[in-house]
Amino acid sequence: MTVFTAVLHQEEDMYIAECPEVGTASQGETIEKAIANLKEATELYLEEFPSKSLKVKKPLMTTFEVAVSAKA
After folding, report:
1. pLDDT of 5-32, one tens digit each?
2. Beta bridge pairs of residue 18
């Protein structure tokens, strides 16, 4: 069993889930469904391209600040 990262964001009424280690993405109406769909998509991808699972590098994630001007 390999642990991957799921990065999620919301677009209108759907959640988009992406796996940065593999490059797979999926969506769902809930966070749970988006992750379940991402898991399925990633499993199917790795069945087709198993060499990707041999060298899994965790992404480096951080935050940063941006100054935004308040133009009307």
Report:
1. 999 999 999 999 999 989 999 999 999 9
2. 7, 25
pLDDT in tens, 51-65: 755 666 778 888 889
Domain that holds residue 4: 1-72
List the CATH number of the domain containing 35.
3.30.160.250
Q: For residues 15 and 34, is the Cβ–Cβ distance under 8 A?
A: yes
CA pair distance 65, 72, nearest whole angstrom:
21
pTM for the model stands at 0.80
| Three-state helix/strand/coil letters over 7-58 | EEEEECCEEEEEECCCCEEEEECCHHHHHHHHHHHHHHHHHHCHHHHCCCCC
